[in-house]
Amino acid sequence: MIPSNCDILLVTQAPFPARSATTNHLARICRGLQLQGCTPAIIGVAASAKLLTGKYSKWEVPFECVEETVPRRPFFIFKRGQVLHKLMQPRIQELINSGTIRAILFYGSSYSAFDKLINICLEHRVLILTYEYEYPMINWLALVTGEYLDRKKYIKRSLPKASGIIGISSFWQVIARKQSIPSIIIPSYLSDEIEILNKGKNTTEIETRDVFHLVRLGHWAVRECPCVLFEALKTVHNKGIPIHHTAIGQIGNNPLERKAVRMYKTDPLLQKIVTVTGWVDDNEKDKLLASASAFIHLRRQNVETQGMFPTRLPEYLAYARPVIVSDAGDIARYMEHKKNAWLIPEGNSPEALSDAIIALYRDKKLANSIGNAGYERAIQCFSIEHNGARLFNFITTISNKSEICR
Questions:
Q1: Which CATH superfamily hosts domain 8-189+384-405?
Q2: Cβ proximity of 359 and 330 under 8 Å
Q3: Residues 179-230: tens digit of each pLDDT
Q4: Can you give the pTM of this predicted structure?
Q5: What is the three-class DSSP state of 395?
Q6: How far lies 306's CA from each of 126, 144, 299, 369, 380, in Å?
Q7: For the chain, which residues make up each domain, given as ranges?
């Protein structure tokens, strides 16, 4: 149950709790606010009929979820959103009427699910925050499901009603300025608190490893540039460098991954030097990440990349291993080439990627230096404590301004 003293409510249309980046991100946002003395809670969609209410993770984040009644299938997006807001509205209204809610944070963009809830907040003069982490892109899947239109409508009609915008990248700050809405950039969160991360920091130096182990989390969607990665891996192998790549996660279920999956399955060399784990539990994932010589994150420079920030980047940095990352979006805002990461040109650059792998394999001292500096940078920019304080101060500032205007 959500406690009677809840002061900041996070609302999402995503399944919660679930094995997903969204669940992790929401929990870390809440923990950051807890460390500032707040009592945050989450209202979402039940991932299971057995998980309608409870406390999530070791941080005991309280949540209440409505049960999914409309399937998440093509053409059902608007209907689903309309049903969700009707299911959420009574409880949100009740919490607002209790008088303890200081702000409501809408996580993500959905006009059908959130717009009428935002109007209720306006009626009761509750602070409306919106956390924007991804810009809607046109592709056949988003068009068929209706997701693209739902999100675009939210940005056009619902976003201007916000008291403040929390953007995962500077892209959203530009949008906020155009509409004269206060904003803050909070890119991503580390996986745990600093003290725990320091105790678990990977101190094994790369010198002890014979095979260069390149690791990444996530799918093989087009935006991840998997074909660029494959070409680089083959180049490195053909130059005599012992290389192995582990792809952690469920791969091949998304239609947008078909090209990469086909390339992998039809290439004997890739099947030899690339391992696809499928789903793994947290302990196995931690072992695989800790075994990495380096991590990889590729992107192209486009509106989609500008509107997001790689939430996996802080998790990689926490292992004190070098991260090879495309210089796209806001990356250069936080990372510096050969200092705390290895930056390569965005997009189709397999030569630059293969050169980076070979350089880090041959210069173990540089690799360790980059990894350690990346860890320190992550603590500075992405810690739960740091982001929690920034978010709390942002809420306090716009809250005070709101009081003055009343």
A1: Glycogen Phosphorylase B; (3.40.50.2000)
A2: no
A3: 999 999 999 999 999 999 998 888 777 665 689 999 999 888 888 899 999 9
A4: 0.91
A5: helix
A6: 30, 24, 10, 28, 22
A7: 8-189+384-405, 194-382
